[in-house]
Amino acid sequence: MLLEELKTFVAVIEKKNFTRAGESLNISQPTVSLHIKHLEDELKASLLVRANKTFHITPAGVVLYERAIQLLHLAEQTKEEILWQHNEVSGILRIAASYTIGESVLPEILTRLHYKYPDLHVEVAIANTEDVEIAVREFRSDIGCIEGSVQAKGLIIQPFMEDELILVAASGHPLTNIRHPRGADLQTSHWVMREVGSGTREYTDYLLQSIGNVKPSKTVIGSNEGVKKAILCGLGIAAVSIHTVKAELDSGKLVQLKVDVPLQKRIFSTLYSPLMAAKKHVNVFLEELQSK
For the residues of 87-124, what is the DSSP string, one character each? Predict the structure, then answer.
């Protein structure tokens, strides 16, 4: 099996379309079809069942897709290991990060990384914690950065930073005039929160259970920036990472609510496959995280 043919097969599965797969690899659609045919002839198995303009992957295709991802990563790692002998760090590092880390923590770290390794290109995908874990397991990302808890079976998880979650409201919100808002005050307030599956939502649910297991009026927004802007507009109150609102707290646009419920600290962690443990790209990124 040729690596180029495996790349084509993976692209077809992930793009769900022969033409789009060809465009992503800068090859023609007939070449894509030829690569798939060569693989099917060599393996003596049907990999895709075509129907009109769509297709379905066969059980044999599922096996090849999983193995192809691993083989392509191993090929890339081999290339990198040879470059390491010449002290070169180049190529692409793919990071999947939860929203808080991706939006508020990584920019500074990636800036330092760029100045140290200008030939290293970084791609960051931002998603909730559950989706970050999936991206790492499926080798769509070399390493993940997560908040909250995950079932990391088969993966390596390492803490790198502590985070504090606080309750905030916009300056002028009625609760900001109360020195210590009580549980009843929080129960009757409108809440702005992240979606289920995010680390911040996990903490918000914990906080709500602590004040009486209530289900308040709420607005759900799928990003930290969206939550923050809604709070700044006066929509309600929110539990957020202190990293995401530091500038607004310093300027007085947001106010931390001093609640009696113990606020939670959590750990930011990296998550990666053992296959990535020896990858130079991953190691230089981990070193930069630990130096923060």
Answer: T---EEEEEEE-HHHHHHTHHHHHHHHHHH-TTEEEEE
